[in-house]
Design brief:
With 161 residues, the chain is mainly β. It has one domain: Beta Barrel (OB fold (Dihydrolipoamide Acetyltransferase, E2P)). 6% of the residues lie in helices and 41% in strands. The protein has a 5-stranded mixed beta barrel with strand order 1-3-4-6-5. The longest helix has 10 residues. 20% of the residues are buried.
Length: 161
């Protein structure tokens, strides 16, 4: 089974290109903290290349910037090519099936929202991902995170189980 789940921050703005058949593809690098500190007591990070295709690639380009926090679900892929000197080069990357927007670089530590949906929790929690990045543009048709001015209240009494 080849399955990867990562949470990290973008090290640069995503790059969007189109293939010869006009399929959108975006690439970015994700900094993922390690669970341990080195001998100096510093936490190190791994920098992982991510590839996203189709509509999700366009969304990544439109709504994420350097420093945005995301969760990526996908698979590891290794490919090779011959460089200018005829030497074989290998590239290992994650091909993302799903990219969840968790927070922006400037997220408040006291905010408890994911993808712009406010939470009623008081104070920070272990699941505090900050706020969503501000969308670029105000066209509601192209902005899936637009605020339509109304909230939805859900209580435990309304749940079927």
């Amino acid at each position: 089974m080849n399955r990867v789940f990562l949470i990290g921050r973008l090290t640069r703005d995503p790059e969007l290109r189109y293939t010869g058949s006009n399929l959108p593809v975006a690439t970015f690098s994700l900094a993922v903290n390690r669970n341990f500190s080195n001998q100096s007591g510093e936490r190190e990070a791994d920098f992982i290349n991510i590839v996203v295709w189709r509509k999700q690639a366009e969304n990544v380009k439109n709504y994420l910037t350097q420093g945005s926090q995301v969760a990526v679900e996908g698979r590891i892929q290794t490919r090779s090519y011959d460089d200018q000197n005829g030497q074989k080069r290998y590239i290992t990357e994650v091909v993302a099936d799903n990219v969840e927007f968790l927070g922006s670089k400037n997220s408040s530590n006291n905010s408890n929202s994911v993808n712009g949906a406010a939470s009623n929790n008081a104070g920070p929690s272990p699941y505090d991902f900050g706020t969503s990045p501000e969308p670029k543009g105000t066209d509601v048709d192209s902005n899936p995170f637009a605020d339509f001015g109304s909230s939805i209240e859900i209580s435990d009494d309304e749940l079927p189980f």
